[in-house]
Amino acid sequence: MKLLEDRIRTDGVVKPGGVLKVDAFLNHQCDVELFDAMGEEWARRFAGVPITKILTIEASGIGIACVAARHFGGVPVVFAKKAPSINLDGDQYATTIYSFTKQREYPVIVGSRFLSPDDHVLIIDDFLANGCALEGLMRLCDMAGATVEGIGIAIEKAFQGGGDALRARGIRVESLARISAMDGETGELAFIDDSAEA
């Protein structure tokens, strides 16, 4: 998606260690107009796919998922919580995931009343690197008996292989910007041109 790629080039910051900072528009300060265009593009790519829920993870995925949901007929957005809370009551689905950016493992939890075997789920998140967070979200769907129809990602760091591994298992992954290389010294990055596939 050229709009997102251009924004990454303009306002993204490449740092050493494979880190891309996009907090100016994606995961700290939110550009809602950009989110809306992203939601429209995911809706175009997943047209005809039955989606009854959008699943994401707190916190960075919530804004993107909520705006995107408007393009899927306003389906509910469920977000996995990263810590137990007194607000979480009743039966729950829980697993653990490893965060690339935080360099640690943490629990993720969804109340069982929000995911069911009747649900057809689109998972949406801001980043895909190694795919650990997505694996955790898919495990929650498996626990619920829900069907994962696909995954929508804003930015995929394709050089880290998570997306390729998911696709090799037959999971549909639609990433709006796929980065093939980043240089933490020069700040340069390169994108994969998926326009022929889209």
From TrEMBL:
Residues reported to bind 5-phospho-alpha-D-ribose 1-diphosphate: 129-133
Cellular localisation: Cytoplasm
CDD domains reported in the protein's UniProt record: PRTases_typeI
SUPFAM superfamilies listed in its UniProt record: PRTase-like (SSF53271)
EC number: 2.4.2.22
Known catalytic reactions: XMP + diphosphate = xanthine + 5-phospho-alpha-D-ribose 1-diphosphate
PANTHER family in the cross-refs: HYPOXANTHINE/GUANINE PHOSPHORIBOSYLTRANSFERASE (PTHR43864), XANTHINE PHOSPHORIBOSYLTRANSFERASE (PTHR43864:SF1)
Purpose of the protein: Converts the preformed base xanthine, a product of nucleic acid breakdown, to xanthosine 5'-monophosphate (XMP), so it can be reused for RNA or DNA synthesis.
Protein name listed in UniProt: Xanthine phosphoribosyltransferase
Record organism: Enorma phocaeensis
Gene encoding the protein: xpt
